[in-house]
Amino acid sequence: MAAVDLKGVVKSYDGKLNVIHGIDLQIQHGEFVVFVGPSGCGKSTLLRMIAGLETISGGEVSIDGHVVNDLPPRARDIAMVFQDYALYPHKNLYDNMAFGLRLRKTPEAEIKQRVMDAAKLLKIDHMLERKPAALSGGQRQRVAIGRAIVRQPKVFLFDEPLSNLDAQLRHEMRSEIKRLHQRLGATIIYVTHDQVEAMTMADRIAVLSAGKKMQYDTPDNIYNRPAAVFVAGFTGAPPMNLADCTLTSGRADLGGTQIVLPPELAARGSASGSAKLKFGIRPENITLSRLSPSDLEVPAEVSLLEPLGAETLVSLKIGATEMVSRCNAAFRDPPGTRLAVHMNPRHLHLFDATTGAAL
Ligand code: ADP
Ligand code: MG
Questions:
Q1: How far does Cα 182 stand from its chain's mean position?
Q2: 41 CB less than 6 Å from ligand 1?
Q3: In the chain, fewer beta carbons within 10 Å around the N or the C end?
């Protein structure tokens, strides 16, 4: 186990344009941290700098308190698992897992012990004689993880390890990797573009956008207290509803429709002095009723139904904007139906539309 510390880390591939803009992150012993963000935001670059596979253009990476900027990958005591498995096709599973240990001249008896332990943990101990070609995608990914486990590294790095698997297997492996973390108690840094993986697996999530850290926090805080409009719009399926708004006497005006804000939120909104604001609410915090609109309810019109089995997503026209509400599966009112909408005042968000910061 080890702590990983990033201080002002910068990366430029061409010496001119930065793709990572000075990132600070502290990862504790035994923590499961997920880097999440859209494709191209710099997740792999950051991970590869921790691994020593990319040079660090500025700032410091430390492992267990020692700056490792100039250490080669093999001296950093980390193991990396990639999306494409990178197994040796002509070696069987046992030899694939043993390879790194043999290079390090580990005694054969110890190699056997470690490979068998990892294989049992990953439930591949009955197929160690097979070659990778005879395995399914999920089994290959297990071998790649097993190869990392036998190394007993200080830190595990995963770069989108489940992206090549189908949805069901991805779900299975997600819970297996999480259980593995509980068993090993290892420090894990895991990169994904999938916010569901991030939310379900992480102790803490670093949300990245365009080479910058948007928020580094628990899944609960990322979801319920997003620090930036980007985080709000990236998390949740569907994500938070976001709409341009102005403030008028304690209300958010969404273009003709006004939402009463809790006094503290309205005060923060006006104190910010921002002319352009964004109003946010998650789909599960919008409820629909047939009552005539009261002070806390606003009129809306159903525009689309998406039944998901356990629930139905209902798109609504509210003022000049469109929002999604997560409703009971039994909801069947057709498009065109006019309803009253209640927005839970404890779950309203305001953001500065220019800086993106939460207010
Ligand atoms: P992610 O893993 O989040 O999809 P990457 O870290 O791969 O993002 O890429 C971040 C940025 O760096 C992108 O703009 C990408 O085009 C650029 N980039 C990545 N690898 C290289 C490279 N080897 N040379 C030049 N630019 C690169
Ligand atoms: Mg990547």
A1: 19
A2: yes
A3: N
Extended strands (E) in 90-227: 155-159, 187-192, 204-209, 212-217
Which token pair is 343?
């927005």
Q: Which residues pair with 326 in a beta bridge?
A: 313
- Whether the CB-CB separation of 326 and 317 falls below 8 Å is answered with no
Per the CB < 8 A criterion, the answer to whether 51 and 63 are in contact is no
Q: pLDDT, tens digit, for every residue of 28-39?
A: 999 999 999 999
Q: Whose CA is nearest to atom 21 of ligand 1?
A: 13
Q: Is 334 exposed, middle or buried (0-12, 13-18, 19+ CB in 10 A)?
A: exposed
Q: Which residue lies with its CA nearest to atom 2 of ligand 1? A: 44
What's the whole-number mean pLDDT along residues 302-330?
94
Q: How far is the CA of 212 from the centre of ligand 1 (A)?
A: 13
The Å distance, Cα 164 to ligand 2 centre, comes to 13
Hey, which residues does 71 pair with through a beta bridge? none
pLDDT digits (tens, 9 = 90+) for 241-268: 999 999 988 899 998 889 999 999 999 9
The DSSP 8-state label assigned to residue 192 in this structure reads: E
Atom from ligand 1 closest to the CA of residue 208? 3
Ligand nearest to the CA of 45: 1
Instruction: Determine if the pTM surpasses 0.85.
Output: yes
Bridge partners (DSSP) listed for residue 329: none
What single-letter amino acid sits at 234?
Answer: F
Which ligand has the nearest atom to the CA of 14? Answer: 1
- Average pLDDT of the chain is 92
CB 154, CB 1: distance < 8 Å:
yes
45 CB within 6 A, ligand 1: yes
Atom of ligand 1 nearest to the CA of 211: 10
pLDDT at residue 98, rounded to an integer: 95
Q: Measuring from atom 23 of ligand 1, which residue has the nearest CA?
A: 13
